[in-house]
Design goal:
Organism: Roseateles terrae
Distance between the termini: 41 Å
Pfam family, one: ADH_zinc_N_2
Order of helices and strands: HEEEHEEEEEHHEHEHEHEHEHHEHEHE
CATH class of the largest domain: Alpha Beta
Largest sheet: 7 strands, mixed
Protein name: NADPH:quinone reductase-like Zn-dependent oxidoreductase
Amino acid sequence: MPECLHLTSHHHPRQNTETHMKALTFKRYGKSPDIGFSNIDRPTLQPDELLVQVYAAGLNPIDNMIPVGTFKPVMSFKLPAVLGSDLAGVVIEVGSKVTRFKPGDEVFASIFDLGRGSLAEFAAVPERAAALKPTNLDFVQAASIPMVGLTSWQALKERMNLRRGQKVFIPAGSGGIGTFAIQLAHQLGAKVGTTVSTGNIELVRGLGADEIVDYKKQEFENVLRGYDGVLGTVRGDTLEKSLGILRSGGRIVSLIGPLDAAFAEAKKLNFFLKFVFGLMSRKLMKQAKQKGVDYGFLFVRPDGQQLGEIEELLKAESVRPVIDRVFPFDQAKEALDYLALGRSKGKVVVKIK
């Protein structure tokens, strides 16, 4: 009996480090979300999940929007909550129902909107959200892809059904989403129009943009005509202005709102929120209808199968990651602040291991 006691006390300190991890969390919603590092419990695995040791986490603008409460009505987090949605890392353990992955596999994933975060030493990732990391990319490059890759895929392929010879407008082409979406649209055989500042013209041309508007010198709505699709990535009046460049039967897929009733329906939100979102998008819907244009809001969903198809494109080097800056884990908060400035050319990534 005493020997047993001796054993437990002996093992206790090590066990402690094995059950906890360092993570960047926020403690409340609003203007002062209290973002900082916490020592929290490692995630416990569900039967359909992988425990992934996170090597790198890609940042996205939505990571800054969640703590201030922008998406509070539609996304649920248990506070304090871990920040971040994109990750690349190594599978440490698999749940009993997992069939596609084994410990030691190198994977990447988006765990957006699953009530968990990626800016941590470990993350639980549902098997359906994960894909094998492209062998030709390192962890930092792979971590930059999931959210922008899936968003572009779901917007351009699923929603717009973009085909060869069609024209799509992707504003802010040098940003995280823009740099990927331009490449995917180009890959699909579409002509791409975009807006950038003078210094980024060569960058987007190299990614496959065809019509490039220097927004410091020209208004895109005076230059571009006859477009089939618009990817809404920029706040402000860009969406309303882009109605003018679309042909009749064209389609706007917006990533930034206004949220619409269809989204409320899909998220199984209550009647009141459906009504509110309906109102928010009413003006734009009405204008779109008058022009014979379709409007929809896209809230990206994690999807390992699609990520697997994106992995093929990455391996073939048909698309490539574009990374602006890499921050060490202890500067993850600074990385989010830097991203918030909105000046990055491509992606901002935090290197964790």
